[in-house]
Amino acid sequence: MSSTPATTEHTIQTGGHTTFYLAAGPEDAPLVIFVHGWPELSLSWRHQLPALAEFGFRCVAPDMRGYGRSSVYDRHEDYAQELIVADMVGLLEQLGSERAVWVGHDWGSPTVWNIASHHPERCVAVANLCVPYRTLECGLDALVALVDRSVYPEDEFPAGQWDYQYFYQEHFARATAEMDANPYNTAKLLFRKGDPAGRGSPTLTAMIRRNGGWFGGADEAPDLPRDDDVVSEADLTVYAEALSRNGFFGANSYYMNHAANAAYANRSVNGGRLDMPVLFIGAAYDYTCETATSPLAGPMRELCSDLSEAECESGHWMAQEKPAQVNAALQQWLASNPRT
Questions:
Q1: For residue 167, is pLDDT > 90?
Q2: Which residues contact 311 (CB under 8 A, 6 or more apart)?
């Protein structure tokens, strides 16, 4: 009976930037790089690294800039997508590889989409969870244009489910202070499984401005019970310690570069068309990134020549809530694509 592949810790330098990453699997195996989102860590891929390593890949998951043990910067513009993509291309080069399979989630998804659309020669294939192509990486106006107005009438919800992103732009210091006040409770509140009962109803992210902040006007996150279906106490502690050490400034600054990100996305090669194998896994109970009935996935379906889609019966944190489903979808897709 084989043992689970070990996950090891590493640090590399690219230019003046430090990237910490976790790795599993043989160093000479085909490479898969997992890119996390807000407000997570390389740890978010803890279930995928050994599973895909056992499947025959070298699996790497970095802490993105602003997170964990990677470099933290003190200006909003240091978290623009163009710089983050450069971090990832630098990581790939330091790993001694020309190309990789890239997998992203949340803010990691636009980074992977941008790698695919600006550096297709660096991509064997790309897979993303929750956030479809040609949405978040194209700026806030692009997101609002794809709002499902049957759920979010424009007179009541002008920004739809993306209202919370305007709160960052209008009240960045307050949004960040609320989260910094108790990073443990903030992380504990966020990492929750999906609720099927929310289907078809406006989600909380559509009401952040009217509610006076993320926590209903309170100065810090409430102390709610931890959701053991998503995160263990040990893993929650790792998240909380990293967020306490670095603060939320860097993580939240990802939301402060919409204009620069849109300009960067407009410089995509091939008119933004992706010809490599692409997998998108939607979350059935992620109502902010709802793709089953809303127009959100429309641009992706038009611009990906070799698109596969799957749905996971989970909320937003699918890689942690439903790791077996996510791993199976990735493994099936990789096995069915001879190019990978």
A1: yes
A2: 281, 282, 283, 284, 292
